[in-house]
Amino acid sequence: MLDLTDIEMRHGARTVLAVPELSLSGSAFTAIIGHNGSGKSTLMSLMARQQKPTSGRLILDGADLHGISQRDLARRLAFLPQQLADVPGLDVRELVGLGRYAWRGALGIWKDEDRQAVEDALAATDLTSYASRMVDQLSGGERQRAWIAMLIAQQSPLLLLDEPTSALDLVHQYGVMSLLRGLNRSAGRGVVVVLHDVNLAARFSDRVIALKDGRIAFDGPPAELMSGGLLSELYGIDIRLLPHPDDAHPIAIVA
Predict the structure, then answer these.
(1) What is the pTM of this model?
(2) Most exposed among 64, 106, 153, 221, judged by the fewest C-beta atoms under 10 Å?
(3) Where are the alpha helices (DSSP H) in 188-236?
(4) Is-contact 153 96, C-beta < 8 A?
């Protein structure tokens, strides 16, 4: 469980994020949406301890987030930033193996459980046959899956991902989201993901948090989010809902 209380983030005199209270489950699939500049990535960065809030508290499993050691934090929480780092010279198995950092001990000695965690993560992301391929030679979707495999190998109960679908085509967007949803369902890991696409959020999440101008404007189940009036208010543009031809959930489109 990750709890935020009286969180405020300011840039100079401007408040860019203000969250009085927010609790994130360690087992649900939560999507964070909102217009550009709404505070999505700032909120994610604070939860992943990439930034410290101007004021307020973040509590992870009963402990102050900023008082947890880096190694202990990595055992509890895994984070995938929006901009993936270049990893020249690493093949896929080596990248995924970096996820075992928190569990390998001071001398970095590999154990059977470390090797098994890497192989399981490769299998879960359908990358076993790519294990010896260089990461910088992969397609965008394959590279994204390789980084997610690293998070899986880390075996943290809570995964935070900042816009993991933003640079992907439609096929890979749904592939990555299906992978994360399956991981949430099969392994019981909590997933918190920042998304731009309302329809992706509604289709895959248990809970949607919508930010507007740095504040929470909606927090609830996807079915309640899918209202033309609510979405239009959130994004400042006329959004309408159409029936899906094969599904009960409607599709949001710009009118």
Answers:
(1) 0.90
(2) 106
(3) 198-204, 222-225, 228-235
(4) yes
